[in-house]
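Standup notes, structure subgroup. Blocker cleared on the protoporphyrin IX containing FE input:
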Amino acid sequence: MFDQLHAYVVQNQTLSATLVSVLALVIAYFLALPREPVYPILPNVPLVDISEVKKGQVELGNLQDALATNCEKYRGQLWQLKARHGTVVVLPERFINELCYLPEEFVSLEAKNTDRFFTQYTRLTPTSIGHDPAHLLHCVKHDLTRNIGSLMKEISEEAEYAFNTSLGECNDWKEIALGDVLTRAVALISGRVFAGPELNRNPDYLQSIIEFTFVAFKAIEAISRYPVWLRPLAQFWVEEVRGIHRSLKQMERILAKVVPERLQLIAEGKAPSNLTTWHINSVPAEKKRDLTVHAHTQLVVSTAAIHNTTLLTTHIIFDMLARPEYIGPIRDEIADVLSQEDEDYLKKSSMPKLRKLDSFMKEAQRIHPLGLLTFERKVMQDITLHDGTVLPKGCCFAVPAYFMAMDPERWGNPEVFDGNRFLNLRGDNAVGGKYSFIETGIGQNDLIAFGHGPHACPGRFFLNNEIKVVLSHLLMNYEMKLQDGEGRPEDIVSADGIAPAYSKKILIRRRKNTA
Ligand code: HEM
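Run returned:
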């Protein structure tokens, strides 16, 4: 009897202890859960709700209309946009200057990205792998920009290789999907600058840097479908999130030989100038051999660089083919600039002379902004704006780039495509000066497509050279036209902005008078 009682008590004690442990684990799990960001709603500020959409509808397709209507209706005022991913305060441009120089402790691009891209699962920011973003930013902002001049020969060589290998002889008109051909060209050029000639034509490397953006965006979409409490577990079985980890591992394998060799070359003072070298030089001693941080940097910079560049270049070419009257004068300008060079490729110093091309590129970017919103930030501490409005901690804000680019009060005739618009505005201003492609601004006739202030796209100086090399190569060596009877392909308005009809076929053939 005593034995039975003892057994019962022991058994129940074990059961109770197990139950208590399970309960403690469940409580700990819920306490450790990242919170769904709660975006405070500003009182007395108009709220426009586009979050209620039927399944299958592209939610932010409504964003274009919502911006056009409400930026006009609330001109000069703040208003709030409630979208599926949260609420964002839409700011008129008069607030940008007082916000853009505030430190990260007040307004943060990183925190906005963390919320928006679920980076604790998707690992899309350096901080999400415990790495300081300053290294990546230093490489793009300083090393890449400073080295553009010495990289121009390689950029031109790679453009030539890319088009020769994709297009072949191409003596007769050939149908191509412009987006595909440009993606490969931009990836080869970017890879040459990010990893050098020993890797950029390696099919595994090339495929990794091209596909990572798609892998990343699928993972964001997939994890967002899970309730916040399940995400810490779901990350282990959601195939798309696992895809991110596979891509990172694959890039680590690709770099496994390169990084130690590069360290050796750096020690010998013989290292080539590219992102791999700059990043090794930038990180602290204990991370120099860390393949994870180098692999992550290669993929994250590729995500920022390759697809945006391809989409913008596709927009520009579609605009040229729809308005062939611009092509002759731009070609003459390129030929003239090339004839002044002592080598047969464009140098960094050639760029300020390509004024018609620069203006055309900027006008194409104005009419087809890749992002409808820009200058997106999260508020980290309450901020009082100059008119007394308080932006509370936790809210996100953005500036309506699309509306600013198409606002009749800023442009007079915003609907008209005028390839010489910025050429005429610019007068004698040098490149980098007002109204040139790389300039960002918030005044009359300024564009903010690259953001504004200290976080404005640091890749745009490289991009400016890269796009001009690609376009010059195509214009000087090939003829292109739209398919018979077709006008400029219709843009695709999506959750991310205004993309060109990427897979649309155009016709191309080698120019008769060139080799
Ligand atoms: C058409 C091409 C591109 C567009 C439209 C574009 C646009 C932008 C925009 C709007 C931002 C955010 C700015 C802000 O919020 O103030 C940004 C940031 C950034 N871009 Fe670009 N970009 C392009 C190409 C590139 C390229 C080629 C690179 C690298 C080589 C690059 C690297 C970056 C980086 C690293 C940031 C983050 C800056 C920071 O956190 O301070 N981008 N870009």
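Discussed briefly. The longest strand covers residues 374-379.
Next: hand off to the docking folks.
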